[in-house]
Design brief:
Jelly Rolls, four-stranded antiparallel β-sheet, alpha+beta, globular, 8 helices, about 20% strand
Length: about 250
């Protein structure tokens, strides 16, 4: 059996570069929101993209009966199209899963004729593609995987993305998402999520160094449960390219 290890990388990530560029721009407004705040409700007017600087954010859909499915979890450095100028309607509810800092990117910030704006549009398109890639990975496990597969996938995905932007300490990372929200992401009940995480702890697959973090102590076991080749997975869900500075 081939043992899969978390790769040691030096983070050079498009979203990290772009976040730094926006933060250096004196015209950029960084917004703040507390855990649990709804930034945008599904079907609200929205014509912007969101760049997450700090924290975790969920994009979700809700049925009339109140059942919620988290479609994607945004992590630091991530982009999401909330709405566009042509279709200014939010496709999902945007909620802060932790205290967050974020930048709203309006159409005029990305529609300029300069090369930096062109690069921004290319990055946004690439981000949409990688979001589709990880969404398809999640849907595969929601449709065909069991509880262990779904939770293992979520943990590997979060770590892979956080590692790419320098937000991990080896196999340890901040884990502010609640069991309820993790269940909404993986299509499971709170009870089922709790049982699966406890099983992983008993089997030495994960550990909790403190109340706000998680350690992936047996990556090989998680990859096997989720049916993931970590190297191929990283290639499909991450965008890596250095970008030029935005004008201004």
């Amino acid at each position: 059996m081939t043992v899969q290890k978390l790769p040691k990388i030096i983070p050079v990530h498009v979203q990290t570069e772009l976040t730094d560029i926006f933060l250096r721009n004196t015209r950029t407004i960084v917004n703040h929101a507390s855990q649990g705040r709804i930034l945008t409700h599904e079907s609200d007017f929205a014509d912007h993209a969101l760049l997450l600087v700090e924290g975790w954010v969920s994009l979700s859909k809700t049925l009339a009966g109140g059942e919620t499915q988290i479609i994607d979890v945004m992590l630091p450095g991530d982009f999401a199209l909330i709405g566009t100028r042509i279709t200014p309607v939010a496709a999902s509810t945007v909620e802060a899963l932790s205290d967050i800092e974020y930048i709203n990117i309006r159409p005029d910030m990305a529609n300029g004729p300069d090369s930096a704006s062109e690069s921004l549009r290319e990055i946004l398109a690439a981000s949409i593609l990688t979001t589709q890639s990880r969404t398809s990975e999640l849907l595969l496990r929601l449709g065909r995987g069991n509880a262990a597969s779904r939770i293992a996938y979520a943990l590997i995905e979060f770590h892979t993305r956080l590692q790419a932007v320098g937000r991990t300490n080896g196999s340890i990372f901040d884990f502010p998402i609640t069991q309820q929200k993790l269940g909404e992401f993986t299509g499971m009940t709170n009870v089922h999520v709790c049982r699966t995480l406890r099983r992983f702890e008993r089997e030495g697959i994960i550990a909790h160094p403190d109340a706000r973090s998680i350690e992936l102590t047996d990556v090989n076991a998680l990859c096997a449960l989720a049916d993931i080749n970590i190297d191929r997975f990283r290639e499909s869900i991450l965008v890596n390219r250095v970008v030029p500075a935005l004008a201004g």
